[in-house]
Amino acid sequence: MRVSRLAAVVALGIACQPSTPPSSEVTRPRAQVTTAETFDAKQVPPYTGAHDAAYAFIDANLRAHVENLRRWVRQPSISAQNNGIQRMAELVRDDLIALGFKEAELVPTTGHPGVWGYYDAGAEKTLAVYMMYDVQPVEPTGWSVDAFEGALVDRPLGKVLMARGATNQKAPERAFLNALEAIIRTQGKLPVNLMVVAEGEEELGSPHFNEVIDKYEARLKTASGVFFPFNSQEPDGDVGMFMGVKGILAFEMEARGGPHGGPVKSEIHGSYKVITDSPVLRLTQAIASLTSPDGNTILVPRYYDAIRAPSDEEQQLTNGMLPQWVAQDSASRAGMGIEQWIDSMSARDALIEYLFSTTMNVDGIWSGYSGPGMKTILPHVATAKLDSRLVPDQDPDSALALIRAHLDAKGFTDVTLRKLSGYPPAQSSVSAPLVRAAIGTYHKYGFPPSVAPRLAGSAPYYVFTKRLGLPMVAGGIGHGSGAHGPDEYMVIEPKSGSRVAGLAAIEKFYVDLLYALSAAR
Amino acid sequence: MRVSRLAAVVALGIACQPSTPPSSEVTRPRAQVTTAETFDAKQVPPYTGAHDAAYAFIDANLRAHVENLRRWVRQPSISAQNNGIQRMAELVRDDLIALGFKEAELVPTTGHPGVWGYYDAGAEKTLAVYMMYDVQPVEPTGWSVDAFEGALVDRPLGKVLMARGATNQKAPERAFLNALEAIIRTQGKLPVNLMVVAEGEEELGSPHFNEVIDKYEARLKTASGVFFPFNSQEPDGDVGMFMGVKGILAFEMEARGGPHGGPVKSEIHGSYKVITDSPVLRLTQAIASLTSPDGNTILVPRYYDAIRAPSDEEQQLTNGMLPQWVAQDSASRAGMGIEQWIDSMSARDALIEYLFSTTMNVDGIWSGYSGPGMKTILPHVATAKLDSRLVPDQDPDSALALIRAHLDAKGFTDVTLRKLSGYPPAQSSVSAPLVRAAIGTYHKYGFPPSVAPRLAGSAPYYVFTKRLGLPMVAGGIGHGSGAHGPDEYMVIEPKSGSRVAGLAAIEKFYVDLLYALSAAR
C-alpha cells in the first residue's frame, strides 16, 4: 500500500547546499534528493469497473461532443482584456443547467464572476470540481489559424482542435461535462454528488477566487477532494500527475521622473541625458539588482530562506519521475527551442531545480521608442512586469516585502512596486483516496502515471489545499500543448498507433474516475 | 577684435578631476572651467546695412510667406517611417527652382534622397546652406492639434504655427527661402552665391549624408562657410548661438536565446524560468553594466579617455553664457518637468556638464507582454535602443568598440550590438568671418547673442567642419520649441511687447545676414 510504503521510507537527510555563488551577496540554495527510494504508480491496483452503457453513449455522440468543445473555445474569454468573460461564464452556467445541476449560478465578485454548480446525486460522496473559464491573450503572430475559430486541423499527432483554450483549459473541462452527460443519460444520475466552482481570473493569478469560495465554504469542506480536468498525456502517451503547484507573485516595477530627478511629465530630448536622470536606466538597474548577472540567482536577501527542503514523499516522487524526465530531456528542450538549461545543468539537476526552486522572471518591459530607426528621447517612465514562482513555504506578500526592502536598501526608493496578484503554493499527498482513485484509473487505461511532487506552473489550488483542507488532483488522459503560446491545441482523434487518447477515451476515463472515487475508502 | 581678445586670454590651466566615484571601476571626469575671462558678443560691432526694398517686400507678402511655411509642415516627412520623404524632397527642389536656382536636383543615396541647389549670383563669395527636410515621428498622445495640419493657434507667446517640423526644422528653413525671394524680387539677385545641400535623414543620424556631399565636395570647399536656418531665440527674446554640436552613436542592444541558453524560437511559459535563461534579464543586466546605479557615470572602461579638456575659447564662451543659463535654470527645468539635475548639481555645474560631457541614454526598450493584467511568459528576445552623445575628441566607432569590449569582458557575449548611426562632434571658432557676420547681425537687431561652445544635441556638422573644413553657423532670430515632442511650434506673430521676433523680422534678419557675410573680410 502506497501510504505504508511511503511511511516506511528511511529519511536519509535532506539539506540545502549552496552552489558556486555567482555573487558574493546571496547564493542559490540547491535542493538535494538523497534517498534512493522511488515511488512507483504501478503499485496502485488498476481500477476494474466497467460502464459499457456510458462508453457506448460516448461513442454514439462523439460528433456532438466535439462540437461542445468547439462551442467553448469559440467563445473568447480573455480575462486580461475583459474580452467575452461574461458570456463565457453564462455558457458554463447554462451547460450545467442543461446537464441537470440542481444549482447553477454566476457568482459576482469584485472582478470577473465565478460560476457555482451543485449536482445532487443523493450519493454518499461529494467531489468538488474546479474549472477556469478564462484564457490567455492571443499572440499577434505565430498562429496558423484564427485562435477563436475552433479549427480542427490535421497535425502529425492526428486531428487536433487548435484554438486558445484548447488545452488550457476549456476543452478538457467541456470533455469532462460530456462524460457527466454520458453517465446521467445512461444511468439516470452520477455516482457522486458534484460541486463545480469555476473562476474567470485564473490567468490573472486568481485575485478574487476566494470571493467565489466564500459563499460555499462550509459545503465545499464536506467534499472528498477537488478534481480539475486536465490533459495529462505527453505526445508519446505517457501520463504525468502532480501533487502540487507553485504559488506566484506577479508585480510591476516602474521608474518615473520625480523629486529625485528625471523628467516628470513627458519624454524630453535625449541630449538632456547629460544632466538628467533616466527612469529607464533606473528601472534596468533595479531589475538587474534582483539577480546575478546570468539572471538565475536571486540576490534579494533572505528570498530563499522560506523554502523548506523536499519531504521524503517529494523525494520519492522525484526519483519516480526521473527516468522519464531524463529520457525526454532533449525532446522537451527541442520543443521549446532551448539548447541548454541554466548553468548547463544535467537533466537530473534540472528536474530538481524545476520542482523545488523559486524564480524571478521578467514577463515584459517597455519604455520609450520601439519603432524603426531612431528617436532620440529620454523617456519619463519605464515599466516592467515580473513574476516569481513560489515553492513551499514561500508566501507572496513576504516575498514582495523582501523585494521592496532590497530595493530600498540599494537606494531604489524611486522605483515603484505594484502587486498584480499573488498566492502561495499548494500540496497534496499521494496517499489521499482521490489521488489513489486517479492513479488506479490511469493504470486501468495502461498509463500508470509518473507522479511529480509538483508542477513548476502556478494555480490557485491553495484555496482548496490550505483553505478547505482538501486534496486536489488535476488529471485525465489526452494530450494538448501550446498553453500561453501560439497554436495551442488538443488531440481529438489521434493518428493510428498513437498512445495518445482521443476524445472518446478521454471521456471514458472521466466516467471511470467518478466511479472509482465513489468506491474509494 | 574677437580673435585678438580670445588669443590674449591667459590660460589658467584646465584639468579633468574625478568626482566622487559611484563605482570603484570608473569615475566620471568633470570638465573644469578655471579662467575668469569671458566672451562678450557686444564687442562685435552691429551690422549697419539697410535693405528697405527687401524689408517692404516681406511686409507686403507676409500672408503668402506664412502659407509657404504651412505648405512645408503639412507635407509629412518622417524619415524613421519613410512617410512622405520623396514628396518632401521634391517640394524642396521645386521651391529652389521657383526661386531661380540654376541647379536644383534630388541626389539619390542608398537611403533617403538629398537635395542639391546652386544659385549663381556671379558674386565673389559663396555661402553653403545646410537643410534637413525630415522630421521626427509623431507622439501618439500629447498633441493639441493634428501634427500635419499646419495649424495657426493662439498661445501665450502669440500666434504660433503648431506642427511637426514647425521649429525642427522645416519652417525656419522655408522662412530663409522667403528672405531669398525678397532679395531676388527686389534686387534682381542675391549678394552671394548659394549652395544648398539638404538631407532627409537627419533624425536618423544622417547615415548617408556623406553620399550627398560626395558629388559636390570640391565645389562646397570653395564656400566661406555653412549656414543653417534656426530659431535661436528663447521665449524671453534672448538669442543663443553655438559653435559646435555633439556627435552621436546610436545603436541597438539585443539579447536572444541561443546556444548559450534561453528559448530560441518563441516565448515560452514563464514557469520554465526556473531552469531557462532569460534574454530580458540578460539585456537588463547588460544595460545596467554600462552605468553606475544612478545611470549617470559610464562604467565602460576608457570611455571618457578620448574627451579633451575645454579649450580657452570654449571656457570663455562658457563663462559668457553662464549668467543667462543660471537665471533661466529654474524655468528651463520647469519647461521640461525636471525637478533637479543629476547629482543635485548647481546650475553652473550643470552647464559645464551639459557642454563638455558624454552620455549613455536609453531611448527605448521592449520585450514580452506590455498589455493589461499579466501574461506569464519568458520572452525569447529583448531589445533596446541607446544613444551616446559624443564630445571632442570622441569617435563613434571607437566608442562602440569600447562598449563591445566591455560587454565581452563582463561575459555578455550573447548580447548583440547593432550600430544604427554615428558621427563625430563638430566645432567652429567665433573668429570665423561667417560667425562674426552672424553676431553683428544679431547685434543690429538688439540681440547680442549668448554664444555656447556647443549644443548638447547632435547634428552631422562634422561633414562641414571636418570633411570640408568650413565654419558652420546655425542661426536666425525667432522662437520655437517642442522639437522631438508633442505640440512643436514656432512663433509667427508675437504678442505685443514680446522680444520674440515674428516671421517678418526673422526674414529681414536673413536678408541682412547674407549682405553682412558678403561684406565680411
For the biggest sheet of chain A, the summary is:
6 strands, mixed
| Strand percent estimate of chain A | 15-25%
User: How many individual β-strands of chain A?
Assistant: 22
- The largest sheet of chain A has its strands arranged as 3-4-8-5-9-20
Q: Looking at CATH, which topology of the largest domain in chain A would you report?
A: Aminopeptidase
Distance between termini of chain A? 13 Å
**Averaged pLDDT of chain A:** 93
Helix content of chain A: 25-40%
Please indicate the count of domains of chain A: 2
* Poorly predicted runs of chain A: 1-24
Describe this structure in words.
The structure is a homodimer of 521-residue chains. In chain A, 32% of the residues lie in helices and 20% in strands. Chain A is of the alpha+beta class and 521 residues long. Chain A folds into two domains: 43-245 and 425-519, 3-Layer(aba) Sandwich (Aminopeptidase), CATH 3.40.630; 247-304 and 357-423, Alpha-Beta Plaits (2-Layer Sandwich). In chain A, the strands form seven sheets. The first copy, chain A, has a six-stranded mixed sheet with strand order 3-4-8-5-9-20. Chain A has a four-stranded antiparallel sheet with strand order 6-7-22-21, with no helix packed on it. A four-stranded antiparallel sheet of chain A has the order 14-16-12-17. In chain A, α2 (52-60) packs across α5 (170-187). Chain A starts with a helix and ends with a helix. Residues 1-24 of chain A have low confidence and may be disordered. Chains A and B meet through β13, α8, α10, β14 and β15 of A and β13, α8, α10, β14 and β15 of B. β14 (361-368) of chain A pairs antiparallel with β14 of chain B.
